[in-house]
Amino acid sequence: MTVSRAPLCHQGLEVSQLMAGFWRLKHWGMNAQELLGFIEAIMEMGVTTMDHAMVYRSEAPFGAALALKPSLRQQMEIVTKCGIRPAGFGPLGASHTSHYDSGHEAIVESVEASLRDLGTDYIDVLLLHRPDYLMDVHEVAEAFAALKAQGKVRYFGVSNFSPAQFEALQNIWGDGLVTNQIELSPYHLQALDSGVLEQCAGYGVRPMLWSCLAAGSLLTPVDAKGQRLLTALQKVREETGAGSVEQVVYAWVLALPCRPVPLLGSSKLARIADAVKALSLSLTREQWYSIWEASNGAPVS
Ligand SMILES: NC(=O)c1ccc[n+]([C@@H]2O[C@H](COP(=O)([O-])OP(=O)(O)OC[C@H]3O[C@@H](n4cnc5c(N)ncnc54)[C@H](OP(=O)(O)O)[C@@H]3O)[C@@H](O)[C@H]2O)c1
Question: What is the best residue among 15, 23, 179 to mutate for testing ligand 1's pocket, by most ligand atoms within 8 Å of CB?
Answer without folding.
Answer: 23
